[in-house]
Structures are given as C-alpha cells and as structure tokens.
Amino acid sequence: MSEPDDSDSAVDADRWREELESKRTEKDEFFAEHPQSPVPPEDRETFDGLEYFEPDLDYRVTATATVHDDPEVVLMETTAGREMRYLRVATLEFDLTRADEELEDGTYELGAYQLESPNDEPLFVPFRDKTTGQQSYEGGRYMELAPDRGLEDGDELTVDFNIAYTPFCAYSETFDCPLPPEENWLEVTIPAGERNE
C-alpha cells in the first residue's frame, strides 16, 4: 500500500515553484525579524535573505520506504562535540536521474530518524552531499518529512531536496546541531535547497 502522494508527473510546476518561493520569503522574514531567529541580533539589520539553489524538479523524487520494526540506535555527533541518540525508523530508497549529468544517475538511500523518546515528530533526514563544505554548509543539511500516517514497508513518499535547509548552528554557536551520520553521506551533487552565500 502506497502513501498518498503526488507523483512527479502530476506536479503543477508553476504552483510548486510559487509555493516554494513563498515559503522561502516567509523564512527570510523570520530570520530577519523574529526574536527566535538564529541570526544574532546584532546581525539582523544587515541580513538580506538566505541563499538558495534554483528550484529544480529533478531533485523532487519519490522514495520507497523500508520500515524498521525494531529500529537501531544511531549515535549522531553534534557540532558541540556531544552525541545524540536517534532511532533509524526507516530507510528511503530513491532514483536520481538527470539527463545532463549521466554519471550521477543512480539509486541512493537515506536513513530517516526520530529521537529515541516516543514522539510524533516528522522524520528527520540529515545528509551530506558533494556540495557540503563548498556550495552548502560544512555540517550538512536537513530535511523533515511528515507522512500523512505511519509508514509501512513499500510506502512511497516525496523527498524534495529543494526544501533542504541549513541547521541553525551555521548562524550561531549557541546552537548545537546533530551531524549527518556517515550512512547519509551521498556521493552525488545535490544542488537544491539552501546554499552558502
């Protein structure tokens, strides 16, 4: 049984782009004005928005979930040198195909995690790719996925790298962020989502 999901062929590209740009504008306003912005108060006046890769539907993919009934504990190091305990609740497998980058075609996997304590939080998908430390933040980027219901083996869900974001610790050392585990280091370039200036 598949997770109800928009297939890529059914996506209204203009509407998708409009919604993505709207969310980006909202986030820029939050970073510039909100008291809980990760941008230090003294830097907010000069903050003129986050940098993004151009929206690209090639990096909005359909992933098939393998659900782990007895999730393994994964210890993630943090930017402050601590360890956080997560459970690998699912593995997401997806194909990446770009007509102009044949060498990067292939099937890839990402672990999806939740904190060890019981919760209804979205699936946490931290990752590194070949942009990490160059065009994107050296500590990797994050995605959060919120399926409509509990995942089952074989469910399909959308993984849209265009919503990949930089963790707050990139803006201030007051934040302590988990670093993507090695199993989520993708040997492929993902020029989508938030990027460095």
From TrEMBL:
Residues 1-47 are annotated as: Disordered. Pfam families: DUF1684 (PF07920). Residues 12-32 have a biased composition (Basic and acidic residues). It comes from the Archaea. Residues 1-11 have a biased composition (Acidic residues). PANTHER family: DUF1684 DOMAIN-CONTAINING PROTEIN. This is DUF1684 domain-containing protein. It comes from Natronorubrum sediminis. The lineage of its organism: Archaea, Methanobacteriati, Methanobacteriota, Stenosarchaea group, Halobacteria.
